[in-house]
Structures are given as C-alpha cells and as structure tokens.
Amino acid sequence: MKLEDRMSRSIKQRASVVVLRSEFASMGSDSQVGRVLARFVELGLLIRVSKGAFAKTRINKFTGKPSPAGTLEMIAAELFRKLGISVEPSLLVAEYNSGSSTQIPMGTRVNTGRRRITRKVTVGNSTISYEKNSRRVEV
To answer: Which architecture does CATH list for 3-67?
Structure first.
C-alpha cells in the first residue's frame, strides 16, 4: 500500500479535525510525509493552519469548494491541546461571559498565562492573537 493511501486512511479514521505532521513520522521519512501532506493541501483534503499542523476540510455547500471542518476557535483549541499548551479565554471574553461587560469581543484572542507563544495559527483570513497574564481578573 502506498504511503499516500495509508496517510489518507489514517486521516479519515480520526475523529479529530487537526492533524499534526509529527503524527505521521512512523509512516515514512520527513520528505515523503511532507510531499504527501503538500499533495493533500493541493487537492483540498487538508488546509495548513500552522507550521506542521493541518486541518481537515469539508465541501462548502454554497461555493462547492473545500473549507475548514471547524471554526478558528475550535481548530486552535484542538491544536493547543495536542501540543500540550494550556490556554484560557482572553480577559475581554471572560468579562463578557461573567456578565460584567456587554460588549461582544471581536477577533480571536486567547490568554496564554505566563507562557510566551509566537506560533501563528491562521484559518482563512482569521488569525489567533495572544495576551499574557499580566493583570488577570479572577472571575
């Protein structure tokens, strides 16, 4: 069985939306895996969301083109969980959820605590931004 077929089967059987390049390390060399992942992106089976991280796609019923199989927030949360990075909602989201603010936060921002993260996570035209735990209000 070809590497492309094995990787395709592995991706389809996963319940998760996010696929990491490192999860295929045992199937072949780095260059082989990279070529197959690039081909999947070219075919529209996956989209690249970050370095070494891809998301499954589904066909958009309006445009007929592949689109991510989840929202930026969902994909980012799953990616951070797989990478072992703990994140929390941003200060503005926490205030809105607690009812102390009526303004709906725009954009996607997460609180990384005391950890500094520079990983760029992009889905479509939207990108995750980070805030550090400088003046965290307990809610």
So the answer is: Orthogonal Bundle (1.10)
